[in-house]
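question for whoever is on the cluster today: can someone run the full assembly for these? two chains, 1228 residues total. i dont have access anymore since they changed the login thing
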Amino acid sequence: MPKVKFTPQNKEIQVETGTNLLKAADQAGLYIEGDCAGRGTCGKCRVRITGDERAEPTTAEKKHLSEKDLDNGWVLACQRTLDRDIVVEVPIQKDAHLRKTTLAGGVEELTAEPMVEKIAVKLDRPAVKDQRADLERLLDNLERPDLDIELRELAGLPALLRKNSFAVTAAITGSRIISVEAGDTTDQIYGVAFDIGTTTIMGSLLDLKTASVVAVAATTNPQNAYGADVISRITHASESRENLKQLQDKVIEAANMLIKDLLKQTRVARDRVYEVTAVGNTTMSHLFMGIDPTYLAPAPFVPAYRRALEVEAARLGLRINPAGRVTFLPNIAGYVGSDTVGVILATDMDRRKDNCAAIDIGTNGELVLAANGRLMACSTAAGPAFEGAQIKHGMRAAGGALESCDYIDGEFKMGTIDDLPACGICGSGLIDAAAALLDAGLIEPSGRFVNPEENPEKVPEQFRERLRPGRNGFEFVLVSAGDSANGDDIVLTQGDLRELQLAKGAIYAGLMILLKEAELSEDQLDCILLAGAFGNYVRKESALTIGLLPQLPPEKIIAVGNAAGDGSKLALASKTVRERAMALPDRVEHLELSTRSDFQDIFIDAMAFQKPKS
Amino acid sequence: MPKVKFTPQNKEIQVETGTNLLKAADQAGLYIEGDCAGRGTCGKCRVRITGDERAEPTTAEKKHLSEKDLDNGWVLACQRTLDRDIVVEVPIQKDAHLRKTTLAGGVEELTAEPMVEKIAVKLDRPAVKDQRADLERLLDNLERPDLDIELRELAGLPALLRKNSFAVTAAITGSRIISVEAGDTTDQIYGVAFDIGTTTIMGSLLDLKTASVVAVAATTNPQNAYGADVISRITHASESRENLKQLQDKVIEAANMLIKDLLKQTRVARDRVYEVTAVGNTTMSHLFMGIDPTYLAPAPFVPAYRRALEVEAARLGLRINPAGRVTFLPNIAGYVGSDTVGVILATDMDRRKDNCAAIDIGTNGELVLAANGRLMACSTAAGPAFEGAQIKHGMRAAGGALESCDYIDGEFKMGTIDDLPACGICGSGLIDAAAALLDAGLIEPSGRFVNPEENPEKVPEQFRERLRPGRNGFEFVLVSAGDSANGDDIVLTQGDLRELQLAKGAIYAGLMILLKEAELSEDQLDCILLAGAFGNYVRKESALTIGLLPQLPPEKIIAVGNAAGDGSKLALASKTVRERAMALPDRVEHLELSTRSDFQDIFIDAMAFQKPKS
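^ ran it for u. tokens below:
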């Protein structure tokens, strides 16, 4: 069986002959970038085989790798199967320095109103005249004789009482004692709020006594190995029970890694964490709970459930107090998940009185409109363009990503995250670049690059070299090889512009449909809230320039940060907020856009870069 | 590592050098008779080592085995450790043909009122105009939108619905769907009622639609390997968490074996069994649930809990429908368990109007008195004498056990179970034999054998040989070597009589204390119910002769069979009965006898064989 060693991570594993290299990396616990689930179409799983002869390139490799790369041992991991011992160099994972996002960036404040209640008691010792059972003795002291108790805690109760002079603390959720602890531990009540993104998983440790965030951590969603988008993952999960289990195991494993990190940062004991809340899109919610998501993919996009699911931590394998409760907030529809519920909670949309739209652009785009006491939501296949997928040099918002682009005095000024040498372009950079190129007149309203041969007068001298023919149409060199991190030109292609047009057109059209249903014109909107890490970094002016948003005064467009994740924290901190969450699936009107002809009409118009007719 | 092969079971295992032979047999899954937890005091774990030289006998072996036995390779398994390969002959397990006990021998009839409800539905298919989630669709059809659902069932719901044209059956317990099944399965609702005895475990499979018992099975409680009495088992469990786990695993394993047998007999599918009820003494209840029983042993005999525990089958490892519910009925006190609750249910003592006492003699003796609307209970250390333990040739009521003895025309007439050659004496045989020997004048009221040397006139000619000096006082040969199964004399010793006196004295005294508390004389008793397999077979006349019971007309003494087990079945069949059970811990007044001086006084008087002063 061949061995494969990964550097610089220095991980080595032995695999069956014929194992795919991408799979082998996954088995070794490494994440290799990629968006196409190993189909060879995205070209992102570049790795370098060192100390071995040059392999015969596959069609996919010929398409995505230069001759020079191939000579230097670069391959696409998805194209290689293992038949002998090799050493593989994996480029440094870009998400190692994920751009930091703000905490509680939404409108709401955290309120301390935990589900878990703790009561410390000191019991009388048993005697022949008082033969009460240990449990009855405890419940009598708690003045809650009808409480239920976790079997595990009852099992150890007799010894615990006697080792601690009958002084213990009970942790109670609802009508159930989930933990009995030695002495007085009433000051220790913790919980973890997760935001399970398709791409990134974020966790926050909260001190529930004070409703304060005491630590945060984030990691890539390791389900990425099975495709960047939810459809790839649904497809994988639908193939077998084992696949579904695999996807569930991946996300639970990642959540456990984050928990470990959070506990290490704060030295909080695992058993003192009694609660987990999570938000995510409906597919993430199904996969986290191990529930068959198959029928989310084809029309009519039916989820297995919408309600919040509450499960014992031990049952899911989440390593907090084993009797702790894990609550995945409710979904609204197949493509409007509990992440949207989180946005609604964080932005108070279920209670606010103004006319307000919220847009959360993650791997999918969800939109909510609060108007005249109604709450409406829809989702659009905005696509993962804003997260860098389907974009030639797209990448997530991590160190070295082009994140801004200005057209000033006839020149483009570029900015990268952490000011590192550019290695790709992230969502906000993509929008900025398109807006800047529009400003510079290099892109036509239709979305085509100006043809420098046909219209040389439209292309200033200094851009003649940079606007060049590519594989499909023209492409513009944003950063030249000499200035980039990997020595290649970083370009914006005609294809990239098309992806951007599809994405921004879908979001704009979705918003128009919501307004139409509410019988509201865009002028009547009091505000548009931009949620998600992306929303935080996109420049309003650029978004307005490319027509992603209707033409509102910029002060009415407000970035609210990771509102979905904030919703998870709000629901963790307060049971009242959680009750509000539970009510949302029945309260929010869901509009299915895919079959509406009015949506298609607006969408087609909205793809152009000119300000759409409203 | 030495290998040991057990015949005739033909099981072979390899063990560490120095492993105790009793432990090795346990590891091989064999049950070897024994009452003393391997201390070498009961002498019952006789096995024969074949094809090896005679071992040097230990003190315990010298005490319990004859020279002839030792020459033939007989040893006590508990005294032997393994240092080489051997073949061990294990005598046929006596419980292989346990005496059959009646079903529902109590007063009550089974009523079909199952906890589990089944509803068959046919759902509309989803459409773009009806995107309801699968779960909501199901609940809408059940007209129970607030039902909870087992995660496992939700996980498989989408595929199940679509594979079965959206026609399914939901099994519901309380507010929870525990199973969703293809097609219409409303006619299949099964449950198992267990009676977890210290010595024997019995299981009955009930068709809960009709409340009929469709199969029964029984097996030895494999915890026997850790001692015949509850104190030995509590001691073992208290030594470590692993030991407690071991005892739990043993009983769960035995229960699973019975379930397998019941399903095999009836061809009922495992997943169609949704409920288990169990009764047992308080120690059995703790061990079954894996709960620390340590403080049941020392005064003040405090249990961890009294209430009924309801646990998911999968959690306990019981192999029925994994979401099925296992309910261990409530205990009343440390030594008055749910077996007594079962007796009360089966004999209707919580509702009947007469003055009625019930006595359940198992390994311990529990007594209940219903009088003037009050219910009182106590337990006595009757000891395991009635189950054959502590009795020289004692054995359980199985094939070959002496079960009856009459003194007619100057001769003793013996009867054995299944008319097999006698191999020991069981509880009913012991009482009969003592009564017959009292009738024959061979036992004095004090409990001593008549001394044939001092009072030769009291010992008829024909018994001169049979009443002979033993190790401690005299002994009487009940069956001579020539007529017995194993070629040894079967005797009743002075020590056996002492054990019998202690046991019957304790029960009689316990009953007197209950009557005293109720301010009732024994004449005012309308009936005495004898519960348990033992109660079914003991002859009332003999019980009256030896003074086990007060001198009531024999027609007022009624055997009610295995009432504890019947109570388990009644509670399984009917939720109303189960509710009655739940109320009993608070309703029954428990009397602690161990510290009452009035109990000690009556007990000492009641040990004599003369009719006690009342």
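summary bc i know u wont read the tokens: The interface with chain A takes residues 126-128, 130-136, 149, 151, 154-159, 162, 289-292, 294-295, 299-307, 309, 311, 315, 331, 333-334, 590, 592, 594-595 of chain B (CB under 8 Å). The domain at 116-182 of chain B is CATH 3.10.20.880 (Ubiquitin-like (UB roll)).
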